[in-house]
Write a structure and sequence with these properties.
Blueprint: E1 2-7, H1 14-26, E2 32-36, H2 50-56, E3 61-65, E4 70-74, H3 84-89, E5 96-100, E6 109-113, E7 129-134, E8 145-147, H4 151-162, H5 164-176, H6 207-217
Parallel strand pairs: 1-5, 1-6, 2-5, 6-7, 7-8
Antiparallel strand pairs: 3-4
Helix pairs in contact: 1-4
Length: 241
């Protein structure tokens, strides 16, 4: 499971960007989950509900379940707030886990920056910020800058930075069948790009060999275009919108 974060000052638009990124990335056949960090006391439950009464009566955890979803509410009851690694361990495996907040943690992050807020750039003191999404031109920025409204370009950057696009291409090659000697098709037992076998299958050819055959079979393609924005200090075109 790959982890990527969205960081930025309050009011910069992290949640808005995330809700626009989710359909873009899931539309490319990646499974995605999210974690949202709140800086204030919050309660997803409602007074008067049975689950609320369970917690008020002293339950440490309350599981609410129905036909279409379930939720687990955990009361810390004086224990310290868990660190991000502990929270991630509670999440079900997916292709990509996006974390909103936890801007001081060490996972790779995209900074959401709006100069109109008058706040400093986090990327100038956080080496784990690998790109910035901004609605204005930025000067003297050492990481790529992408237009805040260019959702496909932001999704491209995240997936490439995590190596997910490469994995998707390798799996697609397996499912198409790889031409030439030793051809295999995606079937029970094929090894996926993350090293896991397809569920309920016997082991087959190692992924490294599959990728090598796939690369040999594919025609050489031109390099992908550079993302909109600046890299290593070049000024980005003004973002639309």
């Amino acid at each position: 499971m790959k982890i990527f974060g969205l960081a930025g000052w309050s009011g910069s638009g992290k949640t808005t960007l995330l809700t626009r990124l989710l359909p873009e990335i899931t539309g490319r056949s990646f499974s995605v989950s999210t974690i949202k960090h709140a800086h204030h006391d919050f309660d997803p439950d409602q007074p008067g509900k049975d689950s609320f009464r369970h917690r008020a009566a002293g339950a440490r955890e309350v599981m609410i379940t129905a036909a279409h979803r379930w939720a687990l509410i955990h009361e810390l009851r004086g224990d310290p707030e868990p660190v991000v690694e502990e929270i991630v361990e509670r999440m079900s495996p997916v292709d990509l886990l996006i974390i909103e907040g936890f801007k001081r943690d060490s996972h790779p992050k995209l900074e959401v920056h709006r100069p109109a807020l008058g706040k400093s750039l986090l990327c100038r003191r956080d080496p784990h910020i690998v790109a910035v999404a901004s609605d204005e031109r930025l000067a003297d920025v050492a990481v790529p800058v992408i237009g805040l409204d260019d959702i496909p370009a932001i999704a491209d950057f995240i997936l490439r930075d995590l190596g997910l696009e490469l994995r998707k291409s390798a799996v697609a090659a397996l499912r198409r069948g790889i031409p030439g000697p030793g051809k295999i098709a995606a079937r029970p037992g094929d090894i996926l790009a993350d090293g896991r076998p397809e569920p309920g299958c016997r082991p087959a050819m190692r992924m490294a060999a599959c990728c090598a055959e796939s690369r040999a079979a594919r025609p050489r393609q031109a390099s992908a275009p550079v993302l909109s924005g600046n890299a290593r200090g070049r000024t980005a075109p003004r973002a639309s919108g």
